[in-house]
Amino acid sequence: MKLPLSWLRKFVRIDEPAREIADRLSAAGLVVENIETVVPAFQGVVVAKVIEAGRHPNADRLSLCQVDAGPKGRFSVVCGAPNVHSGMIAALALVGARLAGADKGQHGDSVPRFEDLPPLEAATIRGVRSEGMLCSERELKLSTDHAGILELPPDAPIGVDLAEFLLLPDTVLDVEITPNRGDCLSIVGLAREVAAIFRLKLHVPRPRPPRSKPEADKLPRFSVEIAAPDLCPRYAALAMTDVKIGPSPIRLRRRLELCGMRALNNVVDATNYVMLETGQPLHAFDLEKIESGKVIVRRADGNGEFTTLDNLKRELQPDDLLIADQSKPLAIAGVMGGLNSEVSDSTSTILLESAYFEPDAIARTSRRLQLQSEASYRFARGIDRAGQVTALARVAELVGAFAGARPVGELTDVEARPAAARQIILDLGAMESLTGAAVAPAETRRRLKAIGAQVASAGRGSLKVIPPSWRGDLNEAADLAEEVARLSGLHEIPSDLPARVAARASVNPTRVFLRNTREVMLGAGLNEVRTLAFTAPADNERFPGVATGSRPVKVQNPLSVELSELRLSLLPGLTTALRFNLNRQAPSFHAFEVGKVFMTRDGSPGESMVLCGLSYGPYLMPDIGRKAIDGGFFSMKGILESWFDAMNVSGRVTYDAARAGEVPFLHPGRAASIGFEGSPIGYLGELHPQEAMRLELDGPCAVVELDLNKLISYGFAPRETIEIPPRYPAVRRDVALVLERELPAQAVIRAVTETASPLLESVEVFDVYEGPGVASGKKSVALACRYRSKDRTLTDEEVNRVHSALVEHARTRLGAELRQ
Amino acid sequence: MKEQLEEIRRRAIAELGDGAGADAVEAVRVRVLGRSGELTEIMRGMRDVAPAERPLMGKLINEIKREIEARIEELQTRLRIEELERSLASASLDVTLPGMKIPRGRMHPVTRIMEEMLDILCGMGFEVEYTQDVEDDFHNFAALNFPPNHPARDMQDTFFLPGGMLLRTHTSNGQIRVLERRRPPLAVVCPGGCYRRDDLSVRAAPAFNQIEGFMIDHRGRVTMSHLKGVLSAFAREFFGETRVRFRGSFFPFTEPSAELDIYCLLCSGAGCPVCKYSGWTEVLGCGMIHPNVLRAVKLDPGEYQGFAFGMGVERTALMKLGIDDLRLFYENDLRFLAQFPSVSGGV
Prior knowledge:
The complex is a heterodimer.
Chain A: E1 2-4, H1 5-8, H2 18-27, E2 32-38, E3 42-56, E4 59-68, E5 74-79, E6 89-99, E7 123-125, E8 128-130, E9 133-134, E10 151-152, H3 162-165, E11 170-175, H4 187-198, E12 223-226, E13 234-241, H5 250-258, H6 266-278, E14 282-286, E15 294-299, E16 304-307, E17 313-316, E18 321-324, E19 329-332, E20 336-337, E21 350-356, H7 359-368, H8 374-381, H9 388-403, E22 406-415, E23 424-427, H10 428-435, H11 441-450, E24 454-457, E25 462-466, H12 477-486, H13 509-523, E26 527-528, E27 534-535, H14 537-542, E28 553-554, E29 565-566, H15 571-582, E30 589-601, E31 604-616, E32 618-620, E33 629-630, H16 633-647, E34 653-657, E35 666-676, E36 679-687, H17 689-694, E37 701-707, H18 709-714, E38 731-740, H19 745-754, E39 760-769, E40 778-787, H20 796-814, E41 817-818
Parallel strand pairs in A: 12-15, 26-30
Antiparallel strand pairs in A: 1-11, 2-11, 3-4, 3-6, 4-5, 6-9, 6-10, 7-8, 13-21, 13-22, 14-21, 15-18, 16-17, 18-19, 19-20, 23-25, 24-25, 27-29, 28-29, 30-31, 31-37, 32-33, 34-35, 35-36, 36-37, 38-40, 38-41, 39-40
Helix pairs in contact in A: 5-6, 6-9, 7-8, 10-12, 19-20
Chain B: H1 2-15, H2 22-33, H3 38-44, H4 54-90, H5 109-123, E1 127-128, E2 134-136, H6 137-140, E3 165-167, H7 173-181, E4 186-195, E5 207-218, H8 224-239, E6 244-251, E7 254-263, E8 280-289, H9 291-296, E9 304-312, H10 313-321, H11 328-331, H12 334-337
Parallel strand pairs in B: 1-4
Antiparallel strand pairs in B: 2-3, 4-5, 5-9, 6-7, 7-8, 8-9
Helix pairs in contact in B: 1-4, 2-4, 5-10
């Protein structure tokens, strides 16, 4: 809401600087976002009266005018404007004046430096001396109008500086109004706030209700029927006739423009002016377009189409509230009027509407139609529940003054549903125990009265408060506590620490899990990234994530097609980050993300926490001269293993070659499915060469993605029992088995250990060999077997015996041969 | 024999002079002490010595043997040291070459800032609870006192999902989710992702993180004074010594509502475009929990009261890091990430 201080001062006499007003309003919850100073684009221009406008002796199209500028003198001025006439009050630029608008646009819109402008000189035009210039609005930079000279109202004081008359320079505060404060979408509402904050008196003139002579049956009649009292509790209207549509006075237009509205004509401008002043939206219909003068406030009931003022067809729904006559809709109530009943240049009789529409109904229709008007914005936030008649009287005054109109009959005020009585008992002790601030009861009363509430005593320590009709947001004691607190900018509330703060918070296991996981990943050289949860459908198809076969979640109102689904996998984000960095010449990219993925489960959207890692390019860089090790399947697997080890769950994890097509975006020969306690939790592998090609990679790119839900429930649990390290030495025996090439190492280990002696402490693969010396289709797997007893040093014979048994079992079980 | 022994000794000691090289020392060792060396031969000849002289002779042999061994040992140690010194001189490194690259990742600054906030809040007695991103209207709006169609909903342009669900627009749903499961007294913070329909730009993003916090106890035990105290302490801990101010504001789920400002970190209150020349920047929104919120989770507002606050992690991170482009957090440029610590210590 734009607040010109010149307008504010009409209602509250405040001399504080703009900065101070802005700071105090901000502290009270009405944030001033900007302070703009409006300066005149002219100097040396006065209000003057054209005494006589005669023909220029030497030019048909020019007038020679005698102009009275009061104390400034009388001047003879040549004028070319078609609208100049005797008796006109106009803006006279005196000799020596400087006009930014006369300077043909060289300064653009910037504020002119007057000293840079040429002063106006007396000139001889077609042989006649002209001592000044009568100015158009464009020349004064008041608007772009240059069709004629500016006509000032007849009561404008002659000889007064035009800037002073136009209340320039002015300061405009841009106040951000929170959705609960519909009452502050008006100059009077903001003036009330300023008055309450600065302890000043608020002056709001009450307009006299329009009176008309009870003449003539021939004058147009109208009636109002409210058929939807739940949506429109009150509707006031007034007919006016003899309307002469034309431009509004310059001061009114200036005010509209300072508040960000465009001037249209004297009737529409008057309704907008009163809306800005009081917060009550008003609408003017051409009464002759209303069939039989019957105004009906009703629901649309059916579906249909309606053309609004902006010449757009709008789809109606049954619950939309309409203003209609017997045969057709005239307006979408509170949102926008219709083209069919618009006030036009030929309109002579109008019907002025001032109504209260329920915020919810207007908000719903306005949002659905994506049509937000100044009116709907205010109705949706709640206007004064009782302000309709006053605003109507005020607008009648202005239309009467500026459009020469007069009222027809009495003002009609239909109240179909009176406002419910509101009364709040404010327990002052309870208020203090909510805010922690002790405000004197007298001061509490003063503040509540200042915002317009009626306050009475309600017994010991309590007040009975009736909130003002314009504050629909005040409904319980907490609301009043806020009013009392904010008017002092919350300064009175002391700062204190509660006793609880000393208590020790219990640790959240998920946070510990995530923190430890991050620690392991960072320690393993993966950088943490964070990517957007939105992705393109193509990416969800390409990287369908860990929960195979799950359908993506579509966003109903996405920002773009590229962001129209929620990610099934973190991989699109990681590959995007990979490409982003490679495009900036990064030599390698090793990263992980812990985040949420989303999928449709049982028909409704759900979410899951996953870990995703990606490794591309040199990973281990030894000293100069030795070859770097690139990130790949086994480096990534190593990182996972160290993480599982840190969690102490390695024994529960299995790695199996992914079945054909199971993880289609991975290299078919370098893809593993990872299981946890028998159920799959994710995949590990290198990107399919085709994917790598698409991403323009020239080496393997290892990726892993795991669902974290099960792992989080295990957490990084410490071991339950601690074993004492064995005291007796271990004996190592190696064996090399020649096996089928396809047999996985995990199967070899399993076969070797299944019947092994309890003396076998561990078995590890330390070499796999294919090539000369080993038959084709076979491989040699070298195992290191470690034997140890808990209670004695083993003898060679003992070890030889159990080791030969192990070897023998492996040979028969796996069909293996011993490699010599 | 005695003369023979003395001769062996004299010759050996003469050959084991200070200048003797490794080969010379070894030659003496083999000739004198070796398996068929001079002393060994003499030992073998002991049979022929008169029994009365044997002890004396044996003693002499041992004496000579020890003397030569000691001398050899001495020379060998010296030679080894000399050898070592020679090799050290030739095996020097270019110490200015880079060391082996031990991989170490960097924590994302948003995580770092969020963890730091949570650490401070946990130190003040708040517990961490995680809640869901995919929400229903009740938990994101209705229970938080946003009536249907209320313009306050327009402050947070919502992403809608199928099945009447939505992406939460704030972490305030955490208040409802936690209070449905647990009863006061409680002090809880809920960190997590939030979503609003804003294009990714310098100042806005469609997905970001917030931390919601709330403290509820019996009426009068947690007041707006405590809200000011706790959040001022948090701001000082997080931003360093700074001036803070509270001003009135509006949120549907708090009453009274307030906003916390700190002295603008970029211009230190002098006025700059970031703080719109006011010298202050907004850090978080807060207030006393609205009675309707308590009612929505079946708590009696006559019995309980509390405060709540919510702050944007990315926005606060920008402020703290003194940068002005939100997109940096979403690009994951390694050159940006590399400027942040890779350990859990302070920033």
